[in-house]
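Bacterial bifunctional deaminase-reductase C-terminal domain-containing protein (Actinoplanes cyaneus), 192 aa
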Amino acid sequence: MGKVVMYGSVSVDGFIADEKDQPGPLFDWLTSGDVPLDESGALTVSQTSYDYIRPYWDAIGVTICGRRVFDLTDGWDGKPPSGIDQVVVVTHRPRPEGWDPAAPFHFVDGVEAAVAKARQLAGDRVVEVAAGDVGGQVLAAGLVDEVRMDVVPVVFGSGRRYFGPVGGQHLLEDPDVIQGSRVLHLRHRVRR
């Protein structure tokens, strides 16, 4: 079974979006280099970032996100982002009216059900959990194996927190640290 990884780009003060749910410059590092990250050529990163991110992206089988992200992105028009095979959406509401039932999106109620469904779909591939409220809930439930953060040199001051409103203390192992262009990649294993 693949590991569960909480992932996202984050400001140095711990935010994944500003007060208006906008990422601002958090994704600028994805266009700050000269190495294409995907076939589109729209994303270009430093060689160091490519060597770190590309193998991780290739290992992802399923992404878990919350309904807020799903709605903000208009469900990526029914096509999972970044070449991901499947998306599991944590929501208490039904799928949107008119949603194509053949689209590789699964709507579940609760983070435990989301992780179980994602693991079933992913097999031995990585289950990625989007940072934010849902990611914090999955961490609090003890279901996250690793936390990956792309730390961007910006201070938001307020907004959407990387770990959401997670309660309690959660210990992480010392980070693996990779310096890219306009980003610091951190990978922490969750201490059990």
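The longest strand covers residues 4-11. The chain has a mean pLDDT of 94. ok done for today
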